[in-house]
Amino acid sequence: MFDALTPILLGVLLGLRHATDADHVVAVTTIVARERSLARAAWVGAVWGVGHTLTLVLLGGAIIAFRIVIPPRIGLGLEFGVAIMLIGLGYSNIRRSNDDAAPKLSRPLLVGVVHGLAGSAAVALLVLATIREPLAAAAYLLMFGLGTILGMMLVTAILAVPALYAGNRVHRMRVGVRVAAGALSIVFGVLLARELIVDGGLFSAVPTWEPH
């Protein structure tokens, strides 16, 4: 019984840890910088996690079920999409730094889907290397997704505190939080894009990609 539950429990714990990956944290920081409610910020994290889990289960499940091999250029391209998205999110935050309107919930859902596309292949391939039974691997993916949703709710709630604190003080400080979050997102996106192009050889004749 315990041996059967171990992969499932491990999936939840690793999903919680997955929520703290740098690109995830930067993305949600940029999104929640305009939130003015702790509960809504946590809900944004949950919606992000749902989008991430949706693509994780669908794409990752297909990879596991059909033993799909992901070419290096495709894997790098999916991660490059995350880099572009981070740059776009950062630019949007800076351009609309004086806009007090909270972002629509469709935005974190879309961001979660893009992150899920980039991460699904890596997670599924790593699962295949350790869990050979398809049903057990699918259960692991579901639990991993659940852990990610819970983790993102916690992470976004914590990250929203500085913006909420600033919002309760002065408008200038609130704008500064948004601009700083946007700038961080742009810088991280550029660095990630550089890594994928230079180190991974995204546009070279022989790209190299390691699922992680």
Automatic annotation (TrEMBL):
InterPro entries: Chloro_ReproSupport/MetalTrans (IPR052776)
Spans through the membrane: 43-69, 76-94, 109-131, 138-163, 175-193
Keywords assigned: Membrane, Transmembrane, Transmembrane helix
Name this polypeptide is given: HupE/UreJ family protein
